[in-house]
Amino acid sequence: MVNLKLLYDEETIQKRIQEMAEEIDRDYEGKSILAICVLRGAIYFAVDLTKKMKNTSIEIDFVRVSSYSGIETTGKIDLTLDVSEDLKDRDVLIIEDIIDTGYTLSFLKKHILEKNPRTLKVAVLADKEERRRVPVDVDYVGFKIPSKYIVGYGFDYNNTCRNLNYIGTLEN
Ligand code: 5GP
Predict the structure, then answer these.
(1) What is the 108 CA–ligand 1 centroid distance (Å)?
(2) Which long-range contacts (CB under 8 A, 24 or more apart) does 112-118 make?
(3) Domains in the chain and their CATH numbers?
(4) Which residue in 46, 64, 137, 143 could disulfide with 95, CB within 3.0 to 4.6 Å?
């Protein structure tokens, strides 16, 4: 059994995502965004965030990266699914679940920038700032969290528990 300690309940998560959606809506002011959801962890966040954005027209695309084996980072990133849309001259928003060491987002930003978008911004639900190994600019952050492994609401424990509606920290 997975032993989790509650970090953010459903109401807290949804309230924070609502605030983020309003901020992003204001920043893009009626523009059209190409949102890139990073599979698999960001699916729940990307769905809720984009549903709460009311003033921005949104297209959704997906990338998939794998960087983790078990709960330890390797620093080695594999792109296992690339975007299908042409990103040239588009306003692109990467929607990612978490930034930890920064390897994944640093890799992804570089990869997306090579496709010549007009603008590129990043929204993450959680940020483990203390664990950063490479600097990465992130534009929208849901929660700054401690250096603990989190599970639920998209965050997996060996690919399970993503469907929990709350986020907990993994306890021994
Ligand atoms: P980074 O490359 O920044 O070290 O890690 C980013 C990826 O590591 C995330 O997309 C996520 O898949 C995974 N990750 C980092 N921290 C956690 C965590 O606390 N829980 C889960 N489930 N995944 C994490």
Answers:
(1) 14
(2) 112/36, 112/83, 112/87, 115/83, 115/86, 115/87, 115/88, 116/87, 116/88, 116/89, 117/34, 117/87, 117/88, 117/89, 117/90, 117/91, 117/92, 118/89, 118/90, 118/91, 118/92
(3) 11-145 (3.40.50.2020)
(4) 46
